[in-house]
Amino acid sequence: MRNSRTIQEGRLRRVLHALLRYEPTLLAGLTWSHFGYVALLASAFGVARAVQSRDPAFEVAWYWIPMFSLSGLCLLLCAAVLTNVATHRIPRSIVLAIALVVGCALAFKLHSWLGFSAAVPFGMAFHKLRVMLLQWGLVVTAYYFIERSIRRAVELRHAELELHRMEAQMLEARLQVMQAQVEPHFLFNTLAHVQRLYQTQPTRGRSMLDSFCAYLQAALPRMRGNGSTLGKEVDLARAYLDIQQIRMGHRLRHEIAVPPELLAASFPPMMLLSLVENAVKHGLNPLRQGGTIRILAASDDHTLRVTVTDNGIGLSTAAYGAGDGVGLSNIRSRLTALYRDRARFTLDPNTPQGVMATIHVPLTLDRRPGAIPGVSVHPGRPQICVPIASLR
User: Fold this and answer.
1) Which residues of the chain have pLDDT under 50?
2) Which domains does the chain have, with CATH numbers?
3) Would you say the pTM of this structure is higher than 0.85?
C-alpha cells in the first residue's frame, strides 16, 4: 500500500514538473516577469478606481482588480499568440492593437461568466470596456515605444559592430597585401650586398645571408595569418636590424629588452617592424654617426606597452613631422579598428635626442603551442630578459 502511494506521488511530481517546464510554441517569449508586471499594474489600476469612486472602496476594488487582472492576462496571451503566429507579416503596432481589443473584450465576458459581476445594461458595459481599453491602451502604447527604442538601439549597435568588423577586415586586407608585397628594392639591395660581401668579405657575407634567411623565415608566415605574438614580432625586428647592422656597420647599434613572460602576448603583426623601419630610415640614416635603436616591452594594469626608441635626429624633421606619416597613420587606424579605444599609439621626443614611439594594447597571452619563439637568455644578465643584440 505504501509502495503504491509512493509510486503515485512520484508520478504526480513528474507530471507537475513537466507541466511547469512545458513551454507552448504559441506562447514563446513569455516569462513570469510579464505576469508579475500585469498583476502589479492590475492591482494599481483597481486601487486607483477604488480611491476615485464614491462607492465603498472594498466593493469597487473587488470588482475592478479581477477585471483588470483578467484583461491584462488576456491581452498578454493574445499579444504572445499573435506575435508568434504573424511574425514579420503584420506590423507590431497592429498586433498590439488587436491584442488590446480582443483581450479586453474577452476579459469582460470572462468576468461576467466567472460571477464577479451581474449582467449590466449595454451602456454601462460599454463604459467599463472603454475604461479597460483606455488604461491598458496607455500601457500598450508605452510598451510599444519602449520596445521600438530598444530594438532600434540594438540594430544601431549591430550596425556599428558590423561597420567596425568591416573596417578591421579592410585594414587587415591592406596589411596582407603589404605583407605579400615584400619591398623589391629591399630584397634586391640585400642580395646585391650579400653578393658583394661574398666577393670581398666572405665571413660578413655569410652573416648577412643568415640574417636575411632569418628575416624571411619570420616574415613569410605573417603573409598567411592575421594574428601574431610579441615574441614573433621581436624576432622579425631583430632579423631586420641584423641585416641593416651589417649594411650600416658601426653606424647602427640595437638593443632588445623584453621580459620572457610577455613573449606570448598577442600583438598586431608588422607594427613593431614599421616602427623599427621608421627609426632606421628617418632617425639614424640621415646622421653620419648613426645611433642606437632600443626595443623595450613592459606591462601594467592589463596593458602591454611596446616602445621603440632611437637617438637620431628627432621629430623636427619633415620625415617624422607630427607623426602623421602614412605608416604611422596606418598604425593608428589599425589599432582603432582592432581595439577601438582600448589601444593607442604615442610619439614623443626622446632624451637627450631622438624619438620614442610607444604602442599600448590590451595584454592577452597566447597559450597555443609555438606562440613563444625560441629565445636564449643571456647568462649572467637576469635584468635583461631577452639578450641584448649589439654590434659584433
Assistant:
1) 182, 318-319, 321-323, 374-392
2) 2-165 (no CATH), 182-362 (3.30.565.10)
3) no
